[in-house]
Amino acid sequence: MTKREGVPPLTEPDATRQPTAGPAPSAPGLSGVALVVVLTGYALSIVDASIVNVALSSVSDDLHGGAAALELVVSGYGLTYALGLVLGGRLGDAFGRRRVYACGLAAFTLTSALCGLAPTIEFLVTARLLQGAAAAMLVPQVLATIQAVTEGQARARAIGMYGATAALGMVVGQILGGLLVSLDVAGIGWRSVFAINVPVGAAALLAVRRVPATRAGAKPGFDPVGTLLFGVTMVCVLAVVVAGHDLGWPLWLWALLAVAAVAALALVRVERGLEAHGGSPLLSPSVLSRPGMRRGLAAMVPFSAGFGAFLFVYALVGQGHFGLDGLASGGVLVPFAAAFFVVTLFTPRIAAALGGRIVTLGAVVQCAGLLLLALVIGLGWPHPSLALVLVGIGLFGVGAALTGPALFRMILADVPPAQAGMGSGVLVTSQQMATALGATVGGTLYVSLSGWLSTVSAAVLVVALLVCFTMTVLVISLKLPDPR
Q1: How far apart are CA 463 and CA 64, in angstroms?
Q2: Which end of the chain is more exposed for a tag (fewer CB within 10 A), N or C?
Q3: What percent of the chain has pLDDT over 70?
Q4: Could you tell me if 285 and 445 are in contact, meaning their C-beta atoms sit under 8 angstroms apart?
Q5: What contacts 74, CB < 8 A, 6 or more positions away?
């Protein structure tokens, strides 16, 4: 169970009530200020995943970093971020989600300042690794807090805003990064893309007391073996996803997938045994096997993979063949962000009317947007109609807004409040891994196809791949439970 820190535990009938058994009268709720505070930290973590991309050339000129070092500036953040999410969620369950969120936000703000002050490329890479680890501490607490203190329509609205923050953060990162570098704020050049986090993070820290303080009723035990095996699995998979394209997919890199498979099988066995003996596994098999969690994650993976592939390949096409700079390229994504934000305001009502079929509707709309893009690119290359491209991107955003928040709610609905941090960590880890995998697969396919086919054929075939991802979500959606 979950309780407010410093508040007496619930009575026995409430303590044994399952999270799906109806509204819990003890839920403290989440004020507008508190929601803004937790979403601010989440937004910073999303923005910083992409804001540095447009500043890499300036970083290279200033710090004399080679291609490998610059790659680590980008991928190092994502590596430690994805690696630490599940552990960050468990820390929140054990020590209090507001406390761990505040520590993660403080660390993120500090490491952002260190990135901005970096005197060498090695210092910057190290600071980025630490920044990703700090993000992994704070991000799981956002969904876990929403799950623990809200219910019904309030939860639907909060998760909708969470999804909108993710979509806006990805677009704002590209636009803001290009704007800051071009303006050369205070003459500090690329350093401003990190320095901007400091006042925003500090302001959120000052208001963090407005966030309800929740934690698990009984502190979970530590699972060193499970943590080690999970870490090995994640590192091996991330190494293939992040470094495969740059290294040319050597045989030894593929061998890491075999190591990951062995570690994953051992992890499953260890976690089942620990839970069977009354222990506290890092990843609870009984929670992960629940229908909402299992089917929701099965849909989340192709949804996120398609999203990652779309953004990455769009950047390659927009900047490589349409001559758009980073700022203009990000600007073309505004219809996606605007559509996503507007639609999330209405998704609670749509979900109440359609139930689990909201994901089906979202997949259909996304397919429509992708098919429109394929037709516009295929028939209008090399100068496709910008208006129709914007319509296709907007439809893709509408479909994503209908699908993403609903999947979040379905996945977390089966997670007991006491394990909300763990469930949130698993969800975000799956989302991040699938997004990175989609970007890698989509980008590699596009580059490979454009080498022996025409550019337009390569682009259309990648869009066809995205349609396959979306159709997979559509098929899975037919057996999804209603979001709660």
Answers
A1: 37
A2: C
A3: 90
A4: no
A5: 52, 53, 56
DSSP 11: P
- Inter-residue contact 266 to 230 (CB < 8 Å): no
The residue among 139, 114, 136 whose CA lies nearest residue 127 is 114
pTM of the model: 0.81
Say what the pLDDT of residue 202 is.
Answer: 96
Contact 294, 458 (CB under 8 A): no
Which residue's entry shows tokens 């089906």?
Answer: 360
As a three-state string, the secondary structure of 108-122 is: HHHHHHHHHHCCCHH
The residues, any chain, with a CB within 8 Å of residue 250's CB and separated by 6 or more, are none
Torsion of CA 28, 32, 35, 39, to 10 degrees: 180
| pLDDT (tens digit per residue) in 227-239 | 899 889 988 988 8
> Residue with structure tokens 């007991």?
416
Q: Which residues on adjacent β-strands are paired with residue 214? A: 4
**C-alpha to C-alpha distance for 461 and 171, rounded to whole angstroms:** 24
Residue 455 CA to residue 381 CA, distance in Å, equals 9
Q: Cα separations (Å) of 287 from 140, 414, 423?
A: 17, 7, 8
Cα separations (Å) of 279 from 12, 386, 460?
Answer: 22, 57, 51
